[in-house]
Specification:
Elements: H1 2-9, H2 15-18, H3 35-39, E1 44-45, E2 53-54, H4 61-65, H5 76-92, H6 104-112, H7 115-122, H8 124-150, E3 159-162, H9 171-189, E4 192-195, H10 205-208, E5 214-219, H11 225-231, E6 236-240, H12 243-248, H13 251-264, E7 269-271, H14 281-297
Parallel strand pairs: 3-4, 4-5, 5-6, 6-7
Antiparallel strand pairs: 1-2
Helix pairs in contact: 5-8, 6-8, 7-8, 8-9, 13-14
Amino acid sequence: MGQELMRRFGNRNIRWIQHPDEPPDLLTGTFGACTIAAIYGLPLIYAADNWPNCEHQYLQSEQIDRLTPPDLDINPFFCKFMDEVEWISHQNGRIEGYINWQGVLNNTYRLRGEELFIDMTLEPNRAKHLFECVTMTMIEATERLYECQRQTEVHIQHSTVSNCLVNMVSPDQYQDLLLPFDQRIASTAGLIGIHNCAWNASAYIQHYATLPGVGYIDMGIESNLVNAKESFPDARRAIMYPPVELANKPLSEIRRDLELITHDYAPCDMVFADIESGTPDDRVIEVIELCEEMSEAL
């Protein structure tokens, strides 16, 4: 991957190109976003042209009611994963990178499917029990991985939550049913990052602002960026830019988007994730140059 980036973008400010002699990150991206689902027994699906996914084998109501967090000491998937972590340690000397532990809502949706949203309305105690189990697993699994990384002098002191589905629940539902679990994750780590994809996070900003130690937050351009900047003045802020718009919007419109972001939200990061394979390299370079231009003007 580093060689390909060098071939296509060798004169650009890309970390993999700048530091080719550092131990490679063999951890980030492993299992896609399905690690917790796999710990709970869902088979993973691998495809040639997509992220890893998990099978849609949803838990039934009675299974959730008697659910307990898996014992990670004997959990087949987690034990195999830790064997791979140990292999990375022996191979590279350092365990660089991150597992995408997702968020409570994302993970429980993978386990329960659309019925989760019915539970949140009609059976909130059932939903809370599932949230409790998944939260405990997220925290324990994260701490075990971080301990292995510390033994190789890689010190990570934060957690992240991916709330990609938060627009599927009302702000009140988030406050009452999900915020307490995000608060527990934040309190355990002391520093937390919040991912919202490229969606509108305006309705949830006031609740996110109650989390302790928000060090990073991202959202879509349709969010109230002025309010977000005021609510998180010390956090590293980012905008997730949709890959379809990156590929298809006229460059003049992308410029206007970046000017708006610069005015209302900067300093911040721009995240151009999941760029499609058909997006020309020239378009990627043009947008990099626009970002550099905006940065120099700050």
